[in-house]
Amino acid sequence: MPEDKEITIYDIARHLNISATTVSRGLKDHPAINKNTRRKIAEAARFLGYRSNTFASSLRSKKTHTLGVIVPRLNSYFMSSVLAGMEKAASQENYNLIITQNPMPALAPGFAIMLLVLAFNLLGNGLRDALNVK
Fold first, then answer.
1. Cα–Cα 20 to 30 A to 5, which of 28, 103, 108, 124?
2. pTM metric for this prediction
3. For the chain, which domains are there?
4. Is residue 131 over pLDDT 70?
């Protein structure tokens, strides 16, 4: 397959001469799909260079699995540590982070504390573990 073309489940289905529905279910380890067929689908997906399109999946499920984070400054050790912990915890739960900064002085005091409280509420123990908080 050409490298510039994104491989889809339809390409895998054509390659294996099965339906795209079977490929989709096989990639998700659906119990109705035979183990041998799931193995062939996984092998073909690797061989063809298939990567799941998270944007398309988000549109179908109406869930982006994305967290937006607004920080006052990105240039402090504290904030970079918090963001690294949030990213690690979010990643473990299959979430992505979108990070932006809003350096408005009026919002800066206490903003980091508010950010941490929100992050702990959203990500729970995963963030505590990532930040090594007891």
1. 28
2. 0.52
3. 9-52 (1.10.260.40), 61-130 (no CATH)
4. no
